[in-house]
Amino acid sequence: MRNLLLVLPLLLGQVPATQAQVSVGVGIQMPGVSIGINLPIFPDLRLVPGYPVYYAPEAQANYFYYDGLYWVFQGDNWYASSWYNGPWQRVMPLYVPVYLLRVPVRYYRQPPPYFRNWRPDAPPRWDQHWGREWQQSRPGWDRWDRHASPPPAPLPTYQRRYPQSRYPQEPTRQQAIRAENFNYQPREPVSRQAYQLPERSKPHSPPSQAAPQDRGQPQGGAERSNPGQDKKKGDGQGSQGKDKKGGRGSD
Known about the structure:
By secondary structure, the protein is an alpha+beta fold. The protein has one domain. Helix content is 14%, strand content 12%. It contains 4 helices and 8 strands. An 8-stranded antiparallel beta sheet has the order 1-2-8-7-6-5-4-3, with helices on one face. A hairpin with a 3-residue loop joins strand 1 and strand 2. The termini are far apart. The N terminus and C terminus are likely disordered.
């Protein structure tokens, strides 16, 4: 497996096509990959109550939206994309945004087996799963002031105009469409870096510990692949809602 080492504390890895779930995925050229996500239309996204994160209750995947990016947890890896069907970039565990890590277990639609013994109303025990080195690098990731959480990013509703039959595959075309329709500026460096793909930059050393008010987040933030709707588990704001302050989505 080859990795792209990008500026900021982020590694975005490339998965060989033979390892992707090509049976239901889309063929993606570099630098992105297929991870088996091939939604026919823009997904129904709902806010996780009390978190600046959306989840997709009808997706057959651990599918989220945070800070201008779609996020999928699959095969013990996190993937991010600025478009709902990818192409996807792998994000190494050390640099996954803390607000994603804090989402309770119950909002994972395809939880891995090791989630089973964990409380559904609490975050997955990433510290147990990823080990001491990860835990030492992300102290306090599961402790925060809920009243100080950032507002959720606006949804990129302009992507509703691009169902599977019209979906732009080339990252450069996706960037151009986004620039014309969506003026949200990500708050976290990883998200900003993802918006710049496929450009490559120089490597950067891992981050230092975050400020006390939001410990567990790498310094400066971190961000950049049938249905069964669970209405009892947190009906947040749907993707039909109005765009939030700080950016705009375009229908």
